[in-house]
Design a protein that fits this description.
Blueprint lengths: L2 E5 L2 E3 L5 E8 L6 E8 L6 E6 L6 E3 L7 E6 L4 E6 L8 E9 L9 E2 L3 E5 L2
Parallel strand pairs: 2-11
Antiparallel strand pairs: 1-3, 3-8, 4-5, 4-9, 5-6, 7-8, 9-10, 9-11
Length: 121
């Protein structure tokens, strides 16, 4: 049983940075891959990034490559998303979610409540 809570969102100007955190509780964290997703009003939910369990293989959406970095600290049961060079198109509610072991597009069965990121001048 795993629970996830996101934090770190806020209002920033274009070009600014934020670091999102996904804090987990439950004994299964170390064997879960954690993904970050986002959803803007009127748009479909988008996969942003994912980090696997074990050796922490990562992937990123093309729209955020070179700007966002995902990492995890298993001792703290936390996954981070460092977001740099933010753009207005990054504005969305950001969610973290868990699936077993490896990153994929399906079977994210545990979700956090989301944190709002707004990028506006």
């Amino acid at each position: 049983q795993l629970q996830l809570v996101e934090s770190g969102g806020g209002l920033v100007q274009p070009g600014g940075s934020l670091r999102l955190s996904c804090a987990a509780s439950g004994f299964t964290f170390d064997i879960r891959a954690i993904g970050w997703f986002r959803q803007a009003p009127g748009k479909e939910r988008e996969a942003v990034s994912c980090i696997s369990s074990s050796i922490s293989v990562t992937n990123y959406a093309d729209s955020v490559k070179g700007r966002f970095t995902i990492s995890r600290d298993n001792a703290k049961k936390t996954v981070y998303l460092q977001m740099n060079s933010l753009k207005p198109d990054d504005t969305a509610v950001y969610y973290c979610a868990a699936r077993p072991y490896s990153c994929d597009k399906t079977n994210y069965n545990t979700w956090g409540q989301g944190t709002q990121v707004t990028v506006s001048s």
